[in-house]
Amino acid sequence: MLLSLENVTKKFGGVVANNNISFSVEKGEIVGLIGPNGAGKTTVMNIISGTFKPDAGKIVFDGKDITSLPPDKICQTGIARTYQIPRPFPDLTALANACVGVLCGKKRHAMSYGDAMLDASHYLEFVGLFGKRNTLARDLTLFELRGLELARALATTPKLIMIDEVMAGLNPGEARKAIRLIERIIDEYHVTILWIEHVMKVIMEATDRVVVLHYGAKIAEGKPKEVANDPVVIEAYLGEKYA
What we know:
Blueprint: E1 3-12, E2 15-25, E3 30-34, H1 41-49, E4 56-61, E5 64-65, H2 71-77, E6 79-81, H3 94-104, H4 113-126, H5 142-155, E7 160-164, H6 172-189, E8 192-196, H7 200-206, E9 209-214, E10 217-222, H8 224-228, H9 231-238
Parallel strand pairs: 3-8, 3-9, 6-7, 7-8
Antiparallel strand pairs: 1-2, 1-4, 4-5, 9-10
Helix pairs in contact: 3-4, 3-5, 4-5, 5-6
């Protein structure tokens, strides 16, 4: 088992964003995290990555309790993430943004800046952005920013990448390219994936297992076809077309 959430709860004032959530992710799995807007999916990722601390519960990664660790230490254990709304350093070039991932990643803090730039160039080339390496992040398109997010995550040398709605805002052609890129990442880097996505065709075809949240609680978990035919999930989220 690579990642385990045990009875994780997070409240914001009187609002319970995550309510006693437990699930695990095995090494090499692609796990989808789905549910309606406001179900608490991104909050789960924020807790795993250390942005938020849970009010109750425990998070174990690669055999280590990471519940109380800050985000930089969690990154160095081997967890990286992307964001639904890309969060680059807008006034840095694409290369410098990827370089941040290299220098902040696992066992990379002693690397020289020159070596980090060379390493970062490799990840930009992998996602198809080497030609834009000297372009400021603020001047990149949304699709290019999605690629930059993945390059920066890969640059940390993760064991687990959490992907938050990488398809959001992309046209069909860009979405297909994004899917192929994620498939290449899995094939070539052998990372484990926890993936939030609203494009159900992608989740149902690409994942090994699906966890469903609704109003902050887990309502289902299982193989994609099992979840797609669960009456509770159909009523709460998918609708009758998935029955």
